[in-house]
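Milestone 3.1: sequence recovery, worked example.
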Protein backbone atom coordinates (compact mmCIF):
# COMPACT_ATOMS: atom_id res chain seq x y z
CA UNK A 1 0.00 0.00 0.00
CA UNK A 2 2.84 2.32 0.83
CA UNK A 3 4.53 1.53 -2.47
CA UNK A 4 1.34 2.41 -4.36
CA UNK A 5 1.15 5.75 -2.59
CA UNK A 6 4.77 6.46 -3.44
CA UNK A 7 4.21 5.52 -7.06
CA UNK A 8 1.09 7.69 -7.18
CA UNK A 9 3.00 10.61 -5.67
CA UNK A 10 5.77 10.17 -8.22
CA UNK A 11 3.26 10.07 -11.07
CA UNK A 12 1.49 13.21 -9.81
CA UNK A 13 4.82 14.98 -9.39
CA UNK A 14 5.79 14.04 -12.94
CA UNK A 15 2.42 15.26 -14.24
CA UNK A 16 2.81 18.59 -12.45
CA UNK A 17 6.30 18.95 -13.90
CA UNK A 18 5.01 18.18 -17.41
CA UNK A 19 2.11 20.61 -17.06
CA UNK A 20 4.48 23.34 -15.93
CA UNK A 21 6.73 22.61 -18.91
CA UNK A 22 3.72 22.80 -21.25
CA UNK A 23 2.63 26.11 -19.73
CA UNK A 24 6.16 27.51 -20.11
CA UNK A 25 6.31 26.32 -23.70
CA UNK A 26 2.94 27.93 -24.44
CA UNK A 27 4.10 31.14 -22.77
CA UNK A 28 7.31 31.14 -24.83
CA UNK A 29 5.24 30.74 -27.99
CA UNK A 30 2.92 33.60 -27.07
CA UNK A 31 5.89 35.81 -26.21
CA UNK A 32 7.60 34.94 -29.53
CA UNK A 33 4.49 35.76 -31.54
CA UNK A 34 3.95 38.97 -29.58
CA UNK A 35 7.57 40.02 -30.11
CA UNK A 36 7.30 39.32 -33.85
CA UNK A 37 4.07 41.31 -34.13
CA UNK A 38 5.61 44.15 -32.14
CA UNK A 39 8.60 44.27 -34.51
CA UNK A 40 6.25 44.34 -37.52
CA UNK A 41 4.18 47.12 -35.94
CA UNK A 42 7.32 49.14 -35.18
CA UNK A 43 8.51 48.66 -38.76
CA UNK A 44 5.15 49.77 -40.16
CA UNK A 45 5.03 52.74 -37.78
CA UNK A 46 8.53 53.84 -38.81
CA UNK A 47 7.72 53.56 -42.53
CA UNK A 48 4.40 55.40 -42.19
CA UNK A 49 5.87 58.15 -40.01
CA UNK A 50 8.57 58.83 -42.61
CA UNK A 51 6.48 58.34 -45.74
CA UNK A 52 3.04 59.82 -45.08
CA UNK A 53 4.29 63.35 -45.80
CA UNK A 54 5.27 62.32 -49.35
CA UNK A 55 1.58 62.15 -50.28
CA UNK A 56 1.43 65.92 -49.77
CA UNK A 57 3.39 68.51 -51.75
CA UNK A 58 4.08 72.18 -51.15
CA UNK A 59 2.62 74.50 -53.81
CA UNK A 60 3.22 78.25 -54.29
CA UNK A 61 0.59 80.47 -55.88
CA UNK A 62 1.94 82.89 -58.51
CA UNK A 63 0.57 85.17 -61.22
CA UNK A 64 2.15 83.75 -64.38
CA UNK A 65 2.15 85.86 -67.56
CA UNK A 66 2.88 84.10 -70.86
CA UNK A 67 4.91 87.02 -72.14
CA UNK A 68 5.93 86.41 -75.75
CA UNK A 69 8.94 88.65 -75.25
CA UNK A 70 10.30 86.55 -72.40
CA UNK A 71 9.34 83.29 -74.07
CA UNK A 72 10.68 84.43 -77.47
CA UNK A 73 7.69 82.74 -79.11
CA UNK A 74 5.70 84.28 -81.95
CA UNK A 75 3.80 81.24 -83.24
CA UNK A 76 2.57 78.61 -80.77
CA UNK A 77 1.81 76.23 -83.65
CA UNK A 78 5.56 75.92 -84.28
CA UNK A 79 6.41 73.03 -81.95
CA UNK A 80 10.15 73.55 -82.39
CA UNK A 81 9.91 77.17 -81.33
CA UNK A 82 7.73 76.30 -78.33
CA UNK A 83 10.19 73.62 -77.21
CA UNK A 84 12.94 76.25 -77.10
CA UNK A 85 10.81 78.80 -75.26
CA UNK A 86 12.16 80.36 -72.07
CA UNK A 87 9.45 79.04 -69.75
CA UNK A 88 11.76 79.22 -66.75
CA UNK A 89 11.96 82.95 -67.46
CA UNK A 90 8.23 83.52 -66.97
CA UNK A 91 8.39 81.60 -63.66
CA UNK A 92 11.22 83.86 -62.53
CA UNK A 93 9.30 86.92 -63.67
CA UNK A 94 6.31 85.76 -61.61
CA UNK A 95 8.54 85.38 -58.53
CA UNK A 96 10.02 88.85 -59.03
CA UNK A 97 6.51 90.26 -59.36
CA UNK A 98 5.61 88.66 -56.04
CA UNK A 99 8.79 89.98 -54.37
CA UNK A 100 9.66 93.25 -56.17
CA UNK A 101 12.12 94.29 -53.46
CA UNK A 102 14.61 91.61 -54.56
CA UNK A 103 17.22 93.31 -56.71
CA UNK A 104 20.69 91.83 -56.28
CA UNK A 105 21.84 88.97 -58.44
CA UNK A 106 22.57 86.75 -55.44
CA UNK A 107 19.13 87.31 -53.93
CA UNK A 108 17.44 86.65 -57.27
CA UNK A 109 19.29 83.35 -57.56
CA UNK A 110 17.98 82.28 -54.15
CA UNK A 111 14.50 83.55 -54.98
CA UNK A 112 14.34 81.46 -58.16
CA UNK A 113 15.07 78.36 -56.06
CA UNK A 114 11.69 78.61 -54.33
CA UNK A 115 9.95 76.92 -57.28
CA UNK A 116 10.87 73.56 -58.77
CA UNK A 117 13.02 73.73 -61.88
CA UNK A 118 10.65 71.32 -63.64
CA UNK A 119 7.65 73.67 -63.60
CA UNK A 120 8.79 75.28 -66.86
CA UNK A 121 7.92 72.05 -68.69
CA UNK A 122 4.45 72.11 -67.11
CA UNK A 123 3.87 75.64 -68.37
CA UNK A 124 5.06 74.63 -71.82
CA UNK A 125 2.55 71.78 -71.92
CA UNK A 126 -0.22 74.13 -70.77
CA UNK A 127 0.59 76.60 -73.54
CA UNK A 128 0.71 73.85 -76.17
CA UNK A 129 -2.67 72.55 -74.99
CA UNK A 130 -4.18 76.06 -74.97
CA UNK A 131 -2.39 78.44 -77.42
CA UNK A 132 -4.81 81.25 -76.50
CA UNK A 133 -2.84 81.70 -73.23
CA UNK A 134 0.01 83.44 -75.07
CA UNK A 135 0.18 87.01 -73.80
CA UNK A 136 -2.30 86.39 -70.99
CA UNK A 137 -1.94 86.02 -67.21
CA UNK A 138 -3.30 83.23 -65.04
CA UNK A 139 -3.03 82.30 -61.38
CA UNK A 140 -1.32 78.96 -60.88
CA UNK A 141 -0.17 76.80 -58.00
CA UNK A 142 3.40 75.79 -58.86
CA UNK A 143 5.36 72.99 -57.18
CA UNK A 144 7.92 74.23 -54.67
CA UNK A 145 11.52 73.08 -54.64
CA UNK A 146 12.27 69.99 -52.52
CA UNK A 147 14.24 71.97 -49.92
CA UNK A 148 11.39 74.47 -49.55
CA UNK A 149 8.94 71.56 -49.38
CA UNK A 150 10.88 69.88 -46.56
CA UNK A 151 11.22 73.17 -44.67
CA UNK A 152 7.54 74.09 -45.01
CA UNK A 153 6.37 70.64 -43.85
CA UNK A 154 8.34 71.05 -40.62
CA UNK A 155 7.41 74.70 -40.11
CA UNK A 156 4.83 73.88 -37.44
CA UNK A 157 7.06 71.36 -35.64
CA UNK A 158 9.05 72.09 -32.53
CA UNK A 159 12.29 71.52 -34.42
CA UNK A 160 12.19 73.14 -37.85
CA UNK A 161 14.44 71.49 -40.44
CA UNK A 162 15.95 74.38 -42.41
CA UNK A 163 18.46 72.24 -44.29
CA UNK A 164 19.60 74.08 -47.43
CA UNK A 165 17.06 76.91 -46.96
CA UNK A 166 18.74 80.27 -46.31
CA UNK A 167 17.44 82.94 -43.94
CA UNK A 168 16.24 85.07 -46.86
CA UNK A 169 14.31 82.11 -48.29
CA UNK A 170 12.78 81.47 -44.86
CA UNK A 171 11.61 85.08 -44.78
CA UNK A 172 10.08 84.76 -48.25
CA UNK A 173 8.30 81.56 -47.23
CA UNK A 174 6.90 83.35 -44.19
CA UNK A 175 5.70 86.17 -46.43
CA UNK A 176 3.96 83.62 -48.64
CA UNK A 177 2.37 82.07 -45.55
CA UNK A 178 1.09 85.47 -44.42
CA UNK A 179 -0.33 86.10 -47.91
CA UNK A 180 -1.90 82.61 -48.00
CA UNK A 181 0.06 81.80 -51.16
CA UNK A 182 1.76 78.60 -50.02
CA UNK A 183 -0.11 75.43 -49.11
CA UNK A 184 0.18 71.67 -48.83
CA UNK A 185 -1.89 69.82 -51.42
CA UNK A 186 -2.22 66.24 -52.62
CA UNK A 187 0.98 65.23 -54.39
CA UNK A 188 -0.45 64.18 -57.74
CA UNK A 189 3.04 64.04 -59.25
CA UNK A 190 3.85 61.08 -57.01
CA UNK A 191 1.06 59.00 -58.57
CA UNK A 192 1.18 60.23 -62.18
CA UNK A 193 4.85 60.61 -63.14
CA UNK A 194 7.97 58.57 -63.63
CA UNK A 195 11.36 58.98 -62.01
CA UNK A 196 13.17 62.31 -61.90
CA UNK A 197 16.41 63.80 -60.62
CA UNK A 198 14.32 66.37 -58.77
CA UNK A 199 12.58 64.79 -55.74
CA UNK A 200 9.52 67.02 -56.00
CA UNK A 201 8.94 65.88 -59.61
CA UNK A 202 9.56 62.15 -59.05
CA UNK A 203 6.70 59.67 -59.09
CA UNK A 204 5.99 55.95 -59.01
CA UNK A 205 3.66 55.64 -62.00
CA UNK A 206 6.45 54.61 -64.37
CA UNK A 207 7.64 51.91 -61.96
CA UNK A 208 4.06 50.77 -61.31
CA UNK A 209 3.40 50.36 -65.06
CA UNK A 210 6.72 48.55 -65.44
CA UNK A 211 5.76 46.20 -62.60
CA UNK A 212 2.40 45.56 -64.26
CA UNK A 213 3.94 44.58 -67.61
CA UNK A 214 6.61 42.48 -65.90
CA UNK A 215 4.06 40.57 -63.81
CA UNK A 216 1.81 40.19 -66.86
CA UNK A 217 4.62 38.47 -68.77
CA UNK A 218 5.39 36.37 -65.68
CA UNK A 219 1.77 35.26 -65.25
CA UNK A 220 1.23 34.47 -68.93
CA UNK A 221 4.31 32.24 -68.99
CA UNK A 222 4.53 30.73 -65.51
CA UNK A 223 0.91 29.77 -64.83
CA UNK A 224 0.25 27.58 -67.91
CA UNK A 225 3.70 25.98 -67.75
CA UNK A 226 3.48 25.37 -63.99
CA UNK A 227 -0.02 23.88 -64.16
CA UNK A 228 0.91 21.69 -67.13
CA UNK A 229 4.02 20.41 -65.34
CA UNK A 230 2.02 19.67 -62.19
CA UNK A 231 -0.66 17.78 -64.15
CA UNK A 232 1.94 15.70 -65.97
CA UNK A 233 3.85 14.79 -62.80
CA UNK A 234 0.71 13.89 -60.84
CA UNK A 235 -1.51 12.30 -63.45
CA UNK A 236 0.56 10.95 -66.33
CA UNK A 237 4.23 10.49 -65.37
CA UNK A 238 5.26 7.01 -64.33
CA UNK A 239 6.88 6.85 -60.93
CA UNK A 240 10.53 6.09 -61.30
CA UNK A 241 14.06 7.38 -61.09
CA UNK A 242 13.56 10.26 -63.51
CA UNK A 243 10.38 11.56 -61.95
CA UNK A 244 11.99 11.36 -58.51
CA UNK A 245 14.95 13.36 -59.85
CA UNK A 246 12.61 15.99 -61.34
CA UNK A 247 10.67 16.31 -58.07
CA UNK A 248 13.86 16.75 -56.05
CA UNK A 249 15.11 19.42 -58.44
CA UNK A 250 11.81 21.30 -58.35
CA UNK A 251 11.87 21.34 -54.55
CA UNK A 252 15.50 22.45 -54.58
CA UNK A 253 14.81 25.26 -57.07
CA UNK A 254 12.21 26.69 -54.70
CA UNK A 255 15.02 27.31 -52.18
CA UNK A 256 17.58 28.78 -54.62
CA UNK A 257 18.46 32.45 -53.89
CA UNK A 258 16.69 34.77 -56.30
CA UNK A 259 19.91 36.42 -57.45
CA UNK A 260 20.92 33.11 -59.07
CA UNK A 261 17.94 33.42 -61.40
CA UNK A 262 19.12 36.93 -62.24
CA UNK A 263 22.55 35.59 -63.19
CA UNK A 264 20.86 32.91 -65.27
CA UNK A 265 18.75 35.51 -67.06
CA UNK A 266 21.84 37.65 -67.68
CA UNK A 267 23.75 34.72 -69.15
CA UNK A 268 20.96 33.16 -71.21
CA UNK A 269 18.38 35.77 -72.19
CA UNK A 270 20.64 38.82 -72.52
CA UNK A 271 24.08 37.50 -73.48
CA UNK A 272 22.97 34.47 -75.52
CA UNK A 273 19.57 35.46 -76.98
CA UNK A 274 20.40 39.21 -77.05
CA UNK A 275 17.15 40.28 -75.38
CA UNK A 276 17.33 44.04 -74.60
CA UNK A 277 18.18 45.02 -71.06
CA UNK A 278 15.78 46.79 -68.73
CA UNK A 279 12.58 45.75 -70.52
CA UNK A 280 9.60 44.00 -68.85
CA UNK A 281 9.94 41.00 -71.20
CA UNK A 282 13.34 39.95 -69.87
CA UNK A 283 12.22 40.76 -66.32
CA UNK A 284 9.14 38.58 -66.81
CA UNK A 285 11.25 35.72 -68.17
CA UNK A 286 13.56 35.81 -65.15
CA UNK A 287 10.68 36.01 -62.67
CA UNK A 288 8.97 33.14 -64.52
CA UNK A 289 11.94 30.90 -63.78
CA UNK A 290 11.83 32.00 -60.15
CA UNK A 291 8.07 31.49 -59.61
CA UNK A 292 7.70 28.22 -61.53
CA UNK A 293 8.72 25.99 -58.57
CA UNK A 294 6.20 27.72 -56.30
CA UNK A 295 3.36 27.31 -58.80
CA UNK A 296 4.27 23.68 -59.59
CA UNK A 297 4.42 22.68 -55.92
CA UNK A 298 1.13 24.41 -55.03
CA UNK A 299 -0.59 23.00 -58.13
CA UNK A 300 0.55 19.47 -57.32
CA UNK A 301 -0.76 19.84 -53.79
CA UNK A 302 -4.12 21.04 -55.17
CA UNK A 303 -4.31 18.07 -57.55
CA UNK A 304 -3.49 15.63 -54.76
CA UNK A 305 -6.34 17.05 -52.67
CA UNK A 306 -8.92 15.90 -55.25
CA UNK A 307 -10.35 12.55 -54.00
CA UNK A 308 -9.47 9.44 -56.08
CA UNK A 309 -13.20 8.60 -56.22
CA UNK A 310 -13.70 11.53 -58.64
CA UNK A 311 -11.23 9.99 -61.07
CA UNK A 312 -12.64 6.50 -60.63
CA UNK A 313 -16.21 7.69 -61.23
CA UNK A 314 -15.19 9.55 -64.39
CA UNK A 315 -13.31 6.52 -65.73
CA UNK A 316 -16.29 4.32 -64.84
CA UNK A 317 -18.58 6.26 -67.17
CA UNK A 318 -16.10 6.01 -70.05
CA UNK A 319 -14.03 9.20 -69.77
CA UNK A 320 -10.50 9.13 -71.16
CA UNK A 321 -7.55 10.03 -68.90
CA UNK A 322 -7.34 13.46 -70.55
CA UNK A 323 -11.07 14.05 -70.06
CA UNK A 324 -10.76 13.03 -66.42
CA UNK A 325 -8.07 15.65 -65.89
CA UNK A 326 -9.58 18.49 -67.93
CA UNK A 327 -13.26 18.02 -67.01
CA UNK A 328 -13.06 16.82 -63.41
CA UNK A 329 -9.67 17.09 -61.68
CA UNK A 330 -8.54 20.48 -63.04
CA UNK A 331 -11.77 22.42 -62.20
CA UNK A 332 -11.74 21.04 -58.65
CA UNK A 333 -8.03 21.80 -58.16
CA UNK A 334 -8.17 25.27 -59.76
CA UNK A 335 -8.79 27.22 -56.49
CA UNK A 336 -5.58 25.89 -54.98
CA UNK A 337 -3.70 26.54 -58.22
CA UNK A 338 -4.92 30.13 -58.38
CA UNK A 339 -3.93 30.65 -54.76
CA UNK A 340 -0.42 29.40 -55.48
CA UNK A 341 -0.19 31.59 -58.58
CA UNK A 342 -1.23 34.72 -56.66
CA UNK A 343 1.29 33.99 -53.92
CA UNK A 344 3.95 33.44 -56.59
CA UNK A 345 3.07 36.76 -58.24
CA UNK A 346 3.26 38.53 -54.87
CA UNK A 347 6.70 37.04 -54.35
CA UNK A 348 7.76 38.17 -57.83
CA UNK A 349 6.41 41.69 -57.21
CA UNK A 350 8.73 42.17 -54.24
CA UNK A 351 11.90 40.84 -55.88
CA UNK A 352 14.80 43.19 -56.53
CA UNK A 353 18.04 41.21 -56.80
CA UNK A 354 17.30 39.29 -60.04
CA UNK A 355 16.05 42.44 -61.77
CA UNK A 356 19.17 44.36 -60.79
CA UNK A 357 21.25 41.71 -62.54
CA UNK A 358 19.43 42.17 -65.85
CA UNK A 359 19.73 45.96 -65.93
CA UNK A 360 16.32 47.11 -64.71
CA UNK A 361 18.15 49.53 -62.45
CA UNK A 362 18.38 52.09 -65.27
CA UNK A 363 17.12 55.63 -64.76
CA UNK A 364 13.82 55.65 -66.69
CA UNK A 365 11.84 58.90 -66.93
CA UNK A 366 9.23 57.99 -69.55
CA UNK A 367 6.18 55.86 -68.81
CA UNK A 368 6.47 52.49 -70.63
CA UNK A 369 3.71 51.81 -73.13
CA UNK A 370 4.40 48.11 -73.62
CA UNK A 371 6.46 45.10 -72.49
CA UNK A 372 9.26 46.00 -74.91
CA UNK A 373 9.79 49.57 -73.69
CA UNK A 374 12.56 50.37 -71.18
CA UNK A 375 11.13 50.28 -67.67
CA UNK A 376 11.86 49.76 -64.02
CA UNK A 377 9.78 48.19 -61.26
CA UNK A 378 8.66 49.29 -57.81
CA UNK A 379 11.31 47.42 -55.73
CA UNK A 380 14.11 48.72 -57.96
CA UNK A 381 12.65 52.24 -57.82
CA UNK A 382 12.73 52.02 -54.03
CA UNK A 383 16.34 50.86 -54.21
CA UNK A 384 17.29 53.83 -56.41
CA UNK A 385 15.58 56.39 -54.21
CA UNK A 386 17.08 54.91 -51.04
CA UNK A 387 20.53 55.45 -52.57
CA UNK A 388 19.86 59.12 -53.44
CA UNK A 389 21.54 61.75 -51.24
CA UNK A 390 18.65 64.27 -51.21
CA UNK A 391 16.69 64.33 -47.97
CA UNK A 392 13.38 64.62 -49.84
CA UNK A 393 13.93 61.16 -51.32
CA UNK A 394 13.71 59.66 -47.81
CA UNK A 395 9.98 60.29 -47.63
CA UNK A 396 9.59 59.23 -51.27
CA UNK A 397 11.28 55.92 -50.46
CA UNK A 398 9.05 55.25 -47.46
CA UNK A 399 5.93 56.22 -49.43
CA UNK A 400 6.90 53.85 -52.27
CA UNK A 401 7.42 51.08 -49.70
CA UNK A 402 3.93 51.78 -48.36
CA UNK A 403 2.48 51.45 -51.88
CA UNK A 404 4.39 48.21 -52.48
CA UNK A 405 3.28 46.76 -49.14
CA UNK A 406 -0.31 47.69 -49.98
CA UNK A 407 -0.13 45.73 -53.23
CA UNK A 408 1.45 42.74 -51.47
CA UNK A 409 -1.17 42.74 -48.72
CA UNK A 410 -3.98 43.01 -51.27
CA UNK A 411 -2.60 40.13 -53.34
CA UNK A 412 -2.18 37.86 -50.33
CA UNK A 413 -5.64 38.82 -49.05
CA UNK A 414 -7.11 38.02 -52.47
CA UNK A 415 -5.42 34.61 -52.36
CA UNK A 416 -6.92 33.84 -48.94
CA UNK A 417 -10.41 35.02 -49.93
CA UNK A 418 -10.29 33.14 -53.23
CA UNK A 419 -9.28 29.94 -51.50
CA UNK A 420 -11.97 30.29 -48.82
CA UNK A 421 -14.73 30.89 -51.34
CA UNK A 422 -13.80 28.33 -53.97
CA UNK A 423 -12.30 25.44 -52.04
CA UNK A 424 -14.39 22.36 -51.31
CA UNK A 425 -14.26 20.18 -48.24
CA UNK A 426 -14.25 16.45 -48.96
Amino acid sequence: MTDNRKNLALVQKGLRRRYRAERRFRLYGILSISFGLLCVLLLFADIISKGHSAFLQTYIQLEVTYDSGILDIDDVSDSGQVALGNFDGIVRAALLEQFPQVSSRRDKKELYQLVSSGEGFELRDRLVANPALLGKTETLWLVADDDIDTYFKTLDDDQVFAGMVSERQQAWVQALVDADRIKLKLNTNFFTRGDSREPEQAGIWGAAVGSFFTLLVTLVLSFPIGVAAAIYLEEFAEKGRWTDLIEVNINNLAAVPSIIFGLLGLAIFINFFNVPRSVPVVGGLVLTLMTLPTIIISSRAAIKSVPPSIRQAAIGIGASPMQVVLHHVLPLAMPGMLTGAIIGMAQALGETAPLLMIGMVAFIVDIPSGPLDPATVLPVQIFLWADSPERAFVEKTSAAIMVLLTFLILMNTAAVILRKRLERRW
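The mean pLDDT is 88. Residues 2-51 form the longest helix (50 residues).
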